[in-house]
Amino acid sequence: MAKNRESRPGGGRDSGSGDSGDNRDEKRKGKRDSKKSDRARTEKESEWQERVVQIRRVTKVVKGGKKLSFRAIVVVGNEKGQVGVGVGKAADVINAVKKGVADARKHAIDVPLTKSNSIPHPTNGIGGGAKVMIRPASPGTGVIAGGAVRTVLELAGVKNILAKQLGSSSPLNNARAAINALSTLRTFGEVARARGITLEQLFN
């Protein structure tokens, strides 16, 4: 019986295991890469902050009567120049907030910030019946704003700014007006490139 085992081709249990070590190495490498990508994704998501501006119970009249649901207004931002406003509706508050966060990230904008954490130039925004006036401020001024506009500016990473709400007192309209105002900001470099001149020519 021992002779029969020794005479088997391929050497018994060792046969066919020539590339098994390479396969194991590739699997380990793939697991490490997936862990790194998951860690990077979670770190990127942890940079975003979420703030609920308003939660209201809304009623929709349907054929069978009234259907109750919740509407959540959410502002998300990473305090590094990215901010967004979203609205979510659901039968419960938790799902409404989740939908609002997803909507806000989907419509996030980039805000150009100066070295003093302010904006490059004055700007105005409109959202429905609300109007927002935003002006840059010197270092040490802080965020002088109120309501939903203050939340949008803080999550965008603005530290020194002056803002005033005009017209409507609706949190959603004011937040959208602030986003509209911030989306119109342009840096001096962007203006110079659009005109086809250098920065020195722009200031002279």
3D architecture notes:
- Residues 9-19 have a biased composition (Gly residues).
- Residues 1-48 are annotated as: Disordered.
- α4 links the parallel β7 and β8 (161-167).
- The strands form two sheets. The chain has a four-stranded antiparallel β-sheet.
- The chain is 40% helix and 29% strand.
- The chain has 204 residues and is an alpha+beta fold.
Could you give a short description of this structure?
With 204 residues, the protein is an alpha+beta fold. Helices cover 40% and strands 29% of the residues. It contains 7 helices and 8 strands; from the N terminus they run H-H-E-E-E-H-E-E-E-E-H-E-H-H-H.
Helices and strands in order, then pairings?
Layout: H1 2-6, H2 20-46, E1 49-62, E2 65-77, E3 82-90, H3 93-106, E4 109-110, E5 123-127, E6 130-136, E7 143-144, H4 147-156, E8 161-167, H5 171-183, H6 188-195, H7 199-203
Parallel strand pairs: 7-8
Antiparallel strand pairs: 1-2, 2-3, 3-4, 5-6, 6-8
Q: Kindly, what is the distance between the CA atoms of the first and last residues, rounded to a whole number of angstroms?
A: 99 Å
Number of helices: 7
User: Hey, roughly how much beta strand do the residues contain?
Assistant: 25-35%
User: How many strand elements?
Assistant: 8
Radius of gyration: 28 Å
Spatial arrangement of strands, main beta sheet: 1-2-3-4
Coarse shape: flat
Region (Disordered): 1-48
Subunit structure: Part of the 30S ribosomal subunit. Contacts proteins S4 and S8.
Domain S5 DRBM: 48-111
Biased composition (Basic and acidic residues): 35-48
